[in-house]
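**User:**
Everyone, produce one record:

**Assistant:**
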Amino acid sequence: MVGGHYTYAEVPLFNSLAELLGSSRNNYDKVGHFVQGFVPALIAREIILRKNIIQGSGWQFFFIISFCLGFSAFYELIEWWVALASGQGAEAFLGTQGYIWDTQSDMAFALLGAIVALISLKELHDRQLAKKINHQQ
């Protein structure tokens, strides 16, 4: 909601951070892309574990990370297609702020979000699922 209100390239707190760090770029969109990896990772893990789709934690991790990267890449393609269809230049629509690696860094932040979610919440998630399974039996 904050990014929608100000536009992602103009969020005041991140303008201040950019000034403080000597950067010309407002990086608020990176928060959104981090969440774009974090949330789908948790959802995918929940489905995989509840439905017992993939055996082995290594394969689960690999699939979830791949899913999140695919999701992020598809989102970047949608942004590009909308920019082409709207007739606006990619720079104006996508808010790259002159950063030629914006798409790649967006996907890297989604990857980071997915990894952080899987590593930091695995134990808590496993405990919650175990409680739910024990409660249902």
Q: What stands out?
A: The CA atoms of residues 58 and 64 lie 10 Å apart.
